[in-house]
Each structure stands twice: as C-alpha cells, then as structure tokens.
Design goal:
Leucine-rich repeat, LRR (right-handed beta-alpha superhelix); 6-stranded mixed β-sheet; Leu-rich_rpt; ATP binding; binds 2-acetamido-2-deoxy-beta-D-glucopyranose; transferase; Jelly Rolls; 883 residues; signal
Length: 883
Amino acid sequence: MFVGYLTPLLLSLAVLVHGQLQTGFISIDCGSPVNFNFVDVDTGISYTPDGAYVSTGINNNISSEYAYPNNPNLAYPLSDLRSFPDGNKNCYTLTPAAAKGSLYLLRASFLYGNYDGEDKLPEFDLYLDANLWSSIKFGNAFDVITTEIISASVSDTISVCLVNKGLGIPFISALELRPLNNSIYGTELGSPVSLVLFERFDIGYTKGTGRYNDDIYDRIWSPYNSPSWNIVSTSSEINNNENGYRAPLEVIRTAAVPRNGSDRLEFSWTADDDASKFYVYMYFAEVQLAKNQTRKFNISWNGSLMFGPLVPRYLFAATISNSEAFTGKEHHISIYKTVDANLPPILNAVEIYMAKQLDELPTFSEDVAAVLNIKTAYQVNKGWVGDPCGPKNYTWEGLECNYSVSLPPRIISLNLTSSGLSGIISASFANITSMESLDLSNNHLSGPVPEFLKELKSLKFMNLEGNQLSGSVPTELVDRSKAGLLTLRVDEQNLCSSGSCKNKKNVVVPVVASLLSALVLCIALIILWRLRRKQKWEADTSNGEGRPLPSKNRQFTYAEVLNITNNFQDVIGKGGFGTVFRGNMKDGTQVAVKMLSTSSKQGSKEFQAEAELLMRVHHRNLASFIGYCDEGSNMALIYEYMANGNLKDYLSYKSSNPLSWEMRLRIAIHAAQGLEYLHHGCKPPIIHRDVKTANILLSENMDAKIADFGLSRAIPSDDHSDVIITTVMGTPGYLDPEYYNSRKLNEKSDVFSFGIVLLELITGQNAVIKKDESIHIVNWVSPLIEREDIGSIVDQRLHGEFDVSSAWKALEVAMACTRPKSLHRATMSTVLTELNQCLAMELSHNRETKERFSEEIYIGPYNSSEVCSTSTTSYSITRPFAR
Ligand SMILES: *[C@@H]1O[C@H](CO)[C@@H](O)[C@H](O)[C@H]1NC(C)=O
Ligand SMILES: *[C@@H]1O[C@H](CO)[C@@H](O)[C@H](O)[C@H]1NC(C)=O
Ligand SMILES: *[C@@H]1O[C@H](CO)[C@@H](O)[C@H](O)[C@H]1NC(C)=O
Ligand SMILES: *[C@@H]1O[C@H](CO)[C@@H](O)[C@H](O)[C@H]1NC(C)=O
Ligand SMILES: *[C@@H]1O[C@H](CO)[C@@H](O)[C@H](O)[C@H]1NC(C)=O
Ligand SMILES: *[C@@H]1O[C@H](CO)[C@@H](O)[C@H](O)[C@H]1NC(C)=O
Ligand SMILES: *[C@@H]1O[C@H](CO)[C@@H](O)[C@H](O)[C@H]1NC(C)=O
Ligand SMILES: *[C@@H]1O[C@H](CO)[C@@H](O)[C@H](O)[C@H]1NC(C)=O
Ligand SMILES: *[C@@H]1O[C@H](CO)[C@@H](O)[C@H](O)[C@H]1NC(C)=O
Ligand SMILES: *[C@@H]1O[C@H](CO)[C@@H](O)[C@H](O)[C@H]1NC(C)=O
C-alpha cells in the first residue's frame, strides 16, 4: 500500500546533463533576481526569473538555515520565492507556445524556509485560471510541496493564481510548464477535467532520485518498491515509440513481480473524500525473456475487471488506464495472472491522478482582451491580474460578471469611477458587448463622448459625470435613455444631445440654448459655489440674516426679467408663493419664470432653497435651471420651459389625447429616474417631499422631469437616521401616512408619493377621488385588486390597449410603494428596475408602430406646484453635492 505523499524533491545526485531540448518548456524560478538565468545542474533545465510573468509581489530568499550550504541537497530554484502580501489574488500569466487547446503539465513548488523570519507556516489556495487546483498547506518549514496538474489550455494564456485565504501570505518558489502529447492522459470523452497528480511511481527502482532527465515531459517519478515484491529489470532499450506516454527508460526498464509467483500484485490508496475521482495510468513492458512461458494477467479495481487479459510485449511499453473515473474513498487495484499463465503479473510504473472538474470557464476571451486593453491604456492600478471573472469570489475590483452554466462568464459591469483615467474613451469599452453598467465618473477623460458606445446594446446604466468630455451623447443612447432603457448620467455640457438640440426643428429647446452657454453656466456655477461657500459661512456667523443669493453670474436683472417675460404677459401657472410666466430668452429659448411674491416670507425661503438645490442638482429627469433674478424684492427663478405642461393636467379628463400605456410607463420611469437620482445620486440624499403629478413636467418630447424643489430637503448622510421635523409638508393624497403620524422623514416618503403618482398613471384617477364622498386612490384600487379586476383598474381611456401582465406588474410596484410601513416599501432603485421590466413586457407585447408624440399633442399650461402648507419652517438646507 502506498503511504504518504511524494518524496520531497531534494535532489542528491548531480547528474551530468546531456543537452535536453526543453522545447516549449517554461521554467520559472520565482523570486529570483532580475536577469538571473541559470541551468539547474541536476536536471539540466534552464530557469528564468519571474518578472516577465508576474507584476505583483516581492522577492524573498529562504532563511540561511534552510539554504545552501546548510542544505546541500536543495534544488536551486527553491532557495528563493515570491511572496504576495498585497491583494487577495495574485497571478502568473503564462503563454504556452502551443496552440489553445493543447495539453500541458504544470508544476508549482513551494518551500517556506522561514523566508519572512516569522516561523509561521501560511496556508493558501492555488488556482489554475478560475478553477481550484490545490490548497497549499505545510507540515514544517522545510517541507517542499510540489503539486502538478495536467490540463488543456482553454485560452492563449494560462493564469496560475495564488489566493490569500486569510491564513498567511501566499508565496511560490518555482513554476514549470511542460507541453504534453495531446493524445495522452485521455479521460472520459466530453468531460472537461484536469488531472492533479496524486502519486507517480517508478516501480521496482530504488536507486534513483526521481527526476529523470530523459523524460521528455519532465515528470518526477518517485522510486517505489514493496517488501512483498521482487524487482525485475532489463538493461536493453525499451521501445517507447508507439506509446505516447513516453515513460523514461530508467522508469520503464525496472518493474516488480510478486515475490510468491501465485500472488497478486496489489496496491491501494485512500482519498480525502467520497466524491474523489481518480484516473490510474499503469505502465507495462516485458523485461524478462522467458521461452515457452506465458505472462498474462487481468487488472481489477475493487473486485471488478478493469482490463484484461493483457500480455506485455517484450521490450515494448504499453500504458493501461481506466476510461471511466474511479469514484470513492477507498481504492484497491489488483493485477492477477490468468489461469493459462505461468508467470506472475508485472508492473513497471504507475501514475494516479485525481480528476478536477473544470466547472469554471475562463471569462469570454473578447471581454478579456478588451478589459486588458483598458487596463493597459489607462494604467489601471487595481491589482487586475488573472482571469477577470474567476474564481467567482475573486473577480477584478470594479468588475461584475454574469456566470452561466456552460458558457464563459461575461463582464456585465465595469466601475472605474475615480480611478484617475485620462485621455479619450477607448474603443475597447465597446468590445465588452454584454456590458450593462459602465461607470467612468470622476476621472479626467477628455475628447468626445464616442459614437461607438451605442454598440453596447445591453447597456442599462452609464455614468460619465465628472470628466472633461466634450460633444454630446450619441443620439441612439439618448433615445434609449428616453425610452427608459438606459440610465444616463452625463455632465451638463454633454447633456445637450444631438438628439434634442440639432435633430428637431421648431422645437422648444429645453435645456440651455447652446453648449457655450452651458459652459458659461458651468463655470458660473463653480464660481458661485466657491463664493457661496464663503458667504454661507459669513452669513452663518452673522445670524443667518439677509443671506444673499449666489453671485451675480447667470443672474438676471429685473429689467431683463421684464424683457424675457414681455412684461409678465403670459401667465402659465400660479403657485402658493407666486406666479409663473412664460418667457423668451434673447436667443429664442422659451423659459418659465417663477416670480416670488414679495409679501411671502415663506416663499422667500423656498426661493432660496430651490435656487441652492437647482444649482447643484443636474439630471435629465429633473427640471433644468437657467438662472434667477434677485433684485431687492424682485426675486425670480428661470427654468426650462416644459412644452407639455404637467402630468396632472395631461392625465386629467380634459385632455383629449390620452396617454398610451407605453407612454405612461415611460413617464413613470423618467420620474422614477429623477427621484432615484435625488435619493441615491446626491450626497447627501435629497428628499423631494412633494412628489405629485402636478410636479412632474412633460417636455416637448414627452420626457418627464421632476420639478419644484421648494420643499426638498437634503438629509445628512452620515447620520442616516430619519429626520424629525416639526411641520409636515406635502400634498393631501400624496402624503405618506407614516411620515404624517411620526414626523419622521426618509426617502420612503417620496416612494409613497411616487406610488400614488403611479396609481394615477395606471388608473387615470386622481389621488383623491371625489365622488359622493372622497376616497383615496389606494382605497379605491385595493378591492379591485382583490377581485383581480384589471379591466376596471386600468384607465378606461386606454380601451384595453395594454399588456395585462405589464399592467399587473406596474400595479404591484405601485402597491409596493404605498405600503403603510415605510420599511416595507421598495426603494426607488428597485422601482426603476421593475418599471423597466413593465416597459419591456409592454414593448414585446405591442411591437406595432410606436406612438411618437408630435406637435398636434395637447399642450397644457405650465402649472407651478401648489404648495399645500403655508406654515413656516426653519430648516436650512444642507448643501447637496451631485455625484
Ligand atoms: C537572494 O540571494 C541572492 C544571492 O544570494 C541575492 O542576489 C538576492 O538579492 C537575494 N534576494 C533578496 C530578495 O534578498
Ligand atoms: C503523440 O502520441 C501518438 C501515439 O500515442 C503518436 O502517434 C504521435 O506521433 C505523438 N505526437 C507527438 C507530437 O509526439
Ligand atoms: C505462495 O502462496 C500460496 C497461496 O497464496 C501458498 O500456498 C504458498 O505457500 C506460497 N508460497 C510461498 C513460497 O510462500
Ligand atoms: C515448450 O512447451 C511445449 C508444450 O507446451 C513442450 O512440448 C516443450 O517441451 C516445451 N519446451 C521447453 C524447452 O520447455
Ligand atoms: C473498494 O473496496 C474496499 C474494500 O475492498 C471498500 O472498503 C471500498 O469502499 C470500495 N470502494 C468503492 C469506491 O467501492
Ligand atoms: C480475465 O478477464 C477475462 C475477460 O477479459 C476473463 O474471461 C477471464 O476469466 C479473466 N481471468 C481471471 C483469472 O479472472
Ligand atoms: C465564495 O464565497 C462564499 C461566501 O463567502 C463561500 O460560501 C464560497 O465557498 C466561496 N467560494 C469559493 C470558491 O471560495
Ligand atoms: C446572464 O446571462 C444569462 C444567459 O446569457 C441571461 O439570461 C441573464 O439575463 C444574464 N443576467 C444578467 C444579470 O445579465
Ligand atoms: C462604482 O463604485 C463606487 C465606489 O465604489 C460606487 O459609489 C458607485 O455606486 C459604483 N457605481 C455603480 C454603477 O455601481
Ligand atoms: C475589438 O474586438 C475586435 C475583435 O472582435 C478586434 O478586432 C478589435 O481590435 C477590438 N478593438 C479594440 C479597441 O479592442
């Protein structure tokens, strides 16, 4: 029976080396000094330093008590090592000369040798690409652990990775790759496995050291003999030519037979666990010339016939292996002569391998190529080594992958925010074709927002904010964003998309007239912000009285306001604190001018609050701010003009052109995006506090934007506890009952209000339905839901033209928003995801001509929000920072 593991690779014989070819060998002496190439005198193998294969880690030498001359038998490559104190996963990248799919043998060696002076044995894992190869554990400091694996390469490069399990710093002493003949070490067809060496024995040889320089595959054969065996051998050449396994001469020349000729030749081994699978390769060659005598035997595993009968040919090598893996803990091989044989069975050599299922495929090669390009192009310094997606728990930082059962993992998310990227946006991003989320915010990227980004068909989220990009976002992306299929975050200067600025004629230009003015505004805002910060501090120290509004930039004089509004001719709305007028800028841009009534002190505070917020919060689904006027008692806010008025009017029965189900979903998605941005995109998060249909404005293109931040409140971010406020604000019907009762405000209050908006979109009813007596929309819809009466729930004006499952799902979302307890309500992010699915359902249901909204559509008045409460509040807005 075999006991123990491989005899340590301590070479005692200094064999004179005949020039070995070493074709395709990669022999790395890990941790050796740069440019230190040497030939190992024992094996004749040329070793190279590891710098070309690894970019992380540090070089170390084992401590002198384990090194030469104290340890004269030490194989040279083991005297130094590379350790990896940083990062969970560190990898060597090997590029075999042979093509992808070729078979090779890899061997990693480890000798701790108290290199760090800590005298503490580490424990770590070794991975081949994304698959666990071996767990490395030492018995003592002079243990040489050598592990070998036979595997076919699945890509052009091979990663050997050391993974830190928290049990000490991983290191490696030597790494070797040997190409093999592709037709050997075959296993069951179609099952991708690699073979980890369990035992490799040269049977019947006792004098050798194990490593034979005539093994073209450079395997290490451990001499083995048993007291119940007799050694037989030959000094003749043995023909190996027809046997691809090519056991070296010294190995195949010697063999063992049972001492008692009638006995069986047996060996057994025990695996660590019941599920272990083994492949056994037995080498046979007849070495005794026996006239008129027959050697003939069968081989069985655990009592069942594995192979036989076999008559070994004189001086010809043969290799027998099991075609189906041996599974189990205890394994017993028996070689026994057949009845017609008069010579005992023989065994020349044996290899036992444990099969490792290659469950984890390496990442899709084009994704890898692209992300490696990105790594190189931007000098990404995130410890990106080895396979990007694997092993699963050790994906590259900033990367997310989608794993499927039989296909290579795909990169679906790349987060390179604040990673110091500079230069233009690389075309390689467009090569990660499954990408769903791309975050390149807060870098120094410049140049245009490239057209090729539209090739990312799965993209659902893209953040380019905080860069110096010029030009506009590709039209297709803008369209997808409008369709609610993509969440786009870009800087102001990239917002004016070619879609909304150039394409459409006679369109009311919504945001800012030109890129130039956007830039001016941007610069102005920065100056403003600086100035303001100073002023705020001064104001605070002077009792907060008479706080001036930000700067004189982008500020309009009262005379200008008069001019813009043509003497306040066109009233388009009235709010609780003032009147809203339509206006025209000099360049023709239509705007909405909100005049603050001079008498209202509350209004004044709101004015300041709103101005502060508007200047810092930018999102395509939030109403855009153009400027303001602050001249004594004349205070005005100037917004983009929203041609289609507010959602409340649009939904009302007055509207002759009812919104289609698809449009309703798109509007809901836009509004949800705006809110999601306030909640999750701003630091600290902002609670709107007055989400309602009257505050959702519709652009000429029917893009929805959330307006009126008069009541908005930023909540301190570190203290995420609910904010307690003294005065409840909001609009009846939309007001979160929990907030109303507890006075505790959090984002979920907006979620409740949004749920009401969604119910209104679904049903076409008002938040408070006034019939004989007033009934709240949630109470109206609940019994209908119980009766599963979707026909009565959905707005009758749709005449049943909607996907029923999409409507049900939207309804579920609305109900998940309006749950009494805020804890049970969904977040805006979840809501957004779900609504996108609703839209997808509707789109696949109704692939007919998508209704495009055009000029003929009813244009409602611009209605400023009615603020229900007129009570004064004394909060001061914490300055939010757009991310
Ligand atoms: C290890 O030892 C070699 C030679 O003895 C020396 O050249 C090398 O600098 C040492 N490496 C380290 C990391 O100390
Ligand atoms: C691989 O082994 C087979 C026999 O198994 C042999 O025919 C073939 O020539 C070998 N290939 C190489 C490249 O040695
Ligand atoms: C050989 O084994 C057989 C049966 O196992 C036994 O009867 C015989 O005595 C053994 N011979 C020797 C020499 O031990
Ligand atoms: C060889 O075997 C045959 C029959 O099996 C026998 O007749 C002959 O004598 C044997 N020769 C030797 C040299 O043992
Ligand atoms: C193999 O046989 C041994 C006894 O001979 C038994 O203990 C073991 O469980 C068997 N293993 C399997 C996998 O059947
Ligand atoms: C050896 O295997 C063959 C089948 O290949 C079988 O017919 C024969 O009986 C076996 N011999 C012994 C001694 O079990
Ligand atoms: C990955 O992590 C999970 C949870 O931490 C753990 O259960 C699992 O075993 C890990 N998988 C691997 C391959 O390490
Ligand atoms: C992952 O891939 C599968 C199959 O390609 C796909 O069905 C699934 O939606 C993907 N999941 C994600 C989160 O992208
Ligand atoms: C990217 O990472 C940053 C910081 O780790 C995080 O704040 C941000 O939300 C991430 N972006 C995405 C899209 O997940
Ligand atoms: C993108 O992938 C294609 C192959 O699919 C390759 O030819 C091209 O060079 C790649 N481009 C970049 C920029 O990585």
